[in-house]
Amino acid sequence: MNISSRQLAAFVSVAQLGSFTRASEKAHMTQSGLSIMIRELEGQLGCRLFDRTTRSVRLTDAGALLLPFALRATDDLTQVVGEIAKLEIQQQRSLRIGCTPMLAASFLPIIYQEFRDAHPQFSLQLIDAEASTIQEQVKSGDLDCGLGIFFKPISGIQRNLLFRSRLIYVRASHHAPLPTPLSELPTLRWTDLPELPLLKLPPSSPIQQLIDKQFQTCGVSRPAHGQFNHIETVVAMAAAGSGGAVVPAFAWGKCAHYGIEGAVIVEPDVTVDFYLITARGKLAPESVKELSDLLSTALGRAAL
User: Do 115 and 172 belong together in one domain?
Assistant: First the structure.
């Protein structure tokens, strides 16, 4: 048996209106088309549902038995369709963002408030996670977009470059300096980095690989003093006087809270690319573009 929702809706309409003519007009279909649907339903049930005369249409005993079920089924379906429509609208007005921890700490508090002020109709859901986790959740659709450093092209992922961040050298300050804007930091050549123990990220970190490659290219060697999984930890250890560290410039805002002193590393300039990622082939919510524009403006102010 394969009773369709259209057949049940047609049956309910005829039963309530007591007329095939009025029911067909309400359904915006021909009377013959409606009659065919009712006959098909009767054929599947093996009984007549209406007694029809030239003057009236009345339910048979079988029709009266079916009517309460048909009413519940059509009402339930209408309700579910309405809830799905509301959910779709809600999803279109929400933005689920994944961001790596340091970037979340550095930029998202500002971006979050600016976005909400500019677009109060949208709700933001923020998740801080490792880059690999963000990639998987963007691909699966659990996140609308991700923000972070994604060095290599990823299958199923569209990368959109937002900015390039220079590398800076940071270490503990022996005095309490006033916060210095990134654009006013002094410069320091790779070959002139202080002879302090170097705090590093793990060798598997693409950022650390980039730094090590530049050290090798410039013939620079510095003793290592431990490795840490997160940039935040490296910055905190540097602030505690455990050594110096090379980190992307977007971490400078967090460094300034520790009273760390820093310098932009030059000759050559080395940059780390920062991307917004979305699922390839999937239409991203309009709010993703709004976020991208807002990020570009904010990051431009930061002069990274």
Answer: no
CATH of the domain at 201: 3.40.190.290
As for how many domains the chain has, the answer is 3
CB-based contact 66:1 (threshold 8 Å): no
Domain of 239, in residue numbers:
163-271
pLDDT, position 91: 52
Q: Answer yes or no: is pLDDT of 167 > 90.
A: yes
Tokens of 19: 């007329």
29/85 same-domain check: yes
Would you say residue 272 has pLDDT above 80? yes
Residue 14 CB-half CA count within 13 A: 30
Average predicted confidence (pLDDT) for the chain: 83
- Indicate if 200 and 295 belong to the same structural domain: no
Tell me: pLDDT of 226 over 60.
yes
This prediction's pTM? 0.60
